[in-house]
Design a protein that fits this description.
CATH architecture of the largest domain: 3-Layer(aba) Sandwich
Number of helices: 17
Number of domains: 4
CATH topology of the largest domain: Rossmann fold
Radius of gyration: 26 Å
Distance between the termini: 32 Å
Shape: globular
Strand content: 15-25%
Strand order of the largest sheet: 8-7-6-9-10-11-12
CATH superfamily of the largest domain: NAD(P)-binding Rossmann-like Domain
Largest sheet: 7 strands, parallel
CATH class of the largest domain: Alpha Beta
Bound molecules: 2-methyl-5-phenyl-pyrazol-3-amine
Number of strands: 22
Structural class: alpha/beta
């Protein structure tokens, strides 16, 4: 019998042409949970945009479901955990929107610079206000792009073509990549803010980019700067932006994304007095992007139903259960070794070397490798999972080198990651020091024993009495509780360099780190986060 596919949410009809090669296709309007549950049991595949909510209850009713396709990027409307538990593959289209988002950025940039929305409104009121809408040229001006991924790169190319000088801040790309596009790389945001006439953002929202545009950074920008955010809501502090525009520090801003969407009627930006252009998250809204995502996803559904593999699966347990079983206890450790190595490195990745030792080497260590890649990549990319981590590494040309040594070393099993980036090589090792007791046992030349904690402070300091008290006093004054602490010496002599590694119950904010860096004898203070294995199910959770 031919498989049956349900297509909802006004998806482009070409999806039907592709899917009907292998299945009977039903197009229906968006259905609420109960109505969807009534009919979903007869379908082998489901294709949605963002309106249809694929809840655990829907999945429970979907007894024959094999694959769900999301025609777009984000999969927030699909309960991935439940889908994974039920063996349902979820696929999406991570690249279908790239051109649309880049073009919308350029459209916002120019309409902001030339007051197009304001002038349009004015002329439609029968006015002819020419001097009021005198604009600003982008030619010969400096555009700063924060982030240089697929979308950022296209925007940079367009800006260079318009005669802009372009600088890029992105701690995760190589200088060659930036220069290839005709732009130049700045190595710190300190060198960035003050030189840009225009700023555009092209990063995911991560711990590092949330509220990156805030009162402090706005004040460091050139007076009269113009800002575009067509990336993610929450990267710009909207209250601070309102103040910046009203004070004249920011001459104009253009936004496609907001902290809360759909926009809150009380959003401060709706009553901002000054130049501000806004669109309701239209970045991906073009006919072509909607067509491309529909084709991308329909092709994957067709292929999977025909027994082939999907190119953009978000959740398949890539790792065969039989391969995973013997190395399961090392998966979270491996991810954290990778995540830590990435956080202490800078610049574009050249290679990732993964060495396993001891008992681990008796098994196929592919899952361990994939976990390391997930850890390394997930610090600065969105939606990295066990399925796409190896693919992303490959697409970016990161060389992945595996090595193994059956020699036991000091531990039953250990994992060492050597991350080679623009800034040099960082080496981190993790080991199972006893049953269910994973530890980070080495960070570069420091031999240590660090628990996998959510919040970690790393403070290299002059090895002399009294230093620990100074650091712990600052933590105490800020009401931060210490869970565990280790002090690791670089060389085994007094008077050299030593490092305090402190795990805490809370995030350590930049202001606290800055206070520590002021202390005589403290060379640096850095915050690092890891992802401890919270429940025995965590492997399944982190699968998605
Ligand atoms: C990080 C970033 C920007 C940034 C740039 C990119 C993922 N990611 N994160 C810290 N591509 C500014 C500050």
């Amino acid at each position: 019998m031919k498989p049956k596919i349900l297509v909802t949410d006004k998806i482009n009809k070409v999806a039907g042409d592709i899917l009907s090669e292998v299945a009977d296709v039903d197009f229906k309007e968006t259905l609420p949970e109960d109505r969807l549950c009534e009919i979903i049991g007869q379908y082998d595949a489901l294709m949605v945009r963002s309106q249809t909510k694929v809840t655990p209850k829907v999945l429970e009713c979907a007894k024959r479901m094999k694959i769900i396709g999301r025609a777009g990027v984000g999969v927030d409307n699909i309960n991935l955990e439940e889908a994974t538990n039920r063996g349902v593959i979820v696929v999406n289209s991570p690249e279908g929107n790239t051109a649309a988002a880049a073009e919308h950025t350029v459209a916002l940039l120019l309409s902001m610079a030339r007051n197009i929305p304001q002038a349009d409104l004015s002329i439609k009121q029968g006015k002819w206000e020419r001097s009021k809408f005198t604009g600003t040229e982008v030619f010969n001006k400096t555009l700063g792009s924060i982030g240089l991924g697929k979308i950022g790169s296209r925007v940079v190319k367009a800006a260079v073509a318009m005669g802009m000088k372009v600088i890029v801040y992105d701690p995760y790309v190589t200088r060659e990549r930036v220069e290839e596009l005709g732009a130049s790389l700045v190595k710190s945001l300190d060198e960035f803010w003050g030189v840009c006439d225009f700023i555009t953002i092209h990063t995911p929202k991560t711990r590092e980019t949330a509220y990156l545009i805030n009162r402090n950074t706005i004040n460091r920008m050139k007076k009269g700067v113009m800002l575009v955010n067509c990336a993610r809501g929450g990267i710009v502090d909207e209250e601070a932006l309102k103040e910046g525009i009203e004070s004249g520090q920011i001459a104009a801003a253009a936004l496609d994304v907001f902290e809360k969407e759909p926009i809150d009627p009380n959003n401060p930006l709706l009553t901002t007095n000054g130049h501000l252009v806004m669109t309701p998250h239209l970045g991906a809204s073009t006919e072509e992007a909607q067509l491309k995502v529909a084709v991308d996803v329909a092709e994957q559904i067709r292929d999977v139903l025909a027994g082939k593999s999907a190119k953009s699966a978000v959740n398949i347990p890539y790792l065969r259960a039989d391969l995973l079983e013997p190395v399961k206890e090392y998966m979270n450790l491996a991810e954290n070794v990778g995540l830590l190595a990435r956080q202490i490195s800078e610049g574009g990745i050249k290679s990732i070397e993964i060495a396993t030792r001891g008992k681990l080497t008796q098994y196929d260590t592919t899952p361990v490798k994939v976990a390391v890649l997930k850890g390394v990549l997930s610090h600065n990319l969105e939606d990295v999972n066990y399925v796409n981590a190896p693919i992303i590494a490959k697409q970016n040309g990161f060389e992945v080198i595996e090595a193994r040594s059956e020699q036991l070393g000091s531990y039953a099993g250990s994992i060492t990651v050597k991350l080679n980036t623009d800034s040099g090589i960082q080496t981190v090792s993790g080991a199972m020091i006893a049953d269910k007791t994973p530890r980070i046992v080495r960070i570069n030349e420091y031999v240590t024993s660090l628990e996998i904690a959510e919040h970690i402070l790393v403070a290299p300091h002059h090895d002399k009495p009294g230093m620990i008290a100074k650091v712990s006093t600052i933590l105490g004054n800020n009401n931060i509780n210490i869970r565990m602490m280790v002090v690791a010496r670089k060389e085994d002599t007094v008077g050299g360099e030593s490092t305090m590694i402190i795990t805490t119950d809370e995030h350590i904010w930049d202001e606290i780190l800055d206070e520590m860096k002021q202390v005589e004898g403290i060379f640096d203070a850095r915050y690092i986060y890891l992802r401890p294995d919270k429940t025995s199910l965590s492997l399944q959770h982190s699968m998605v």
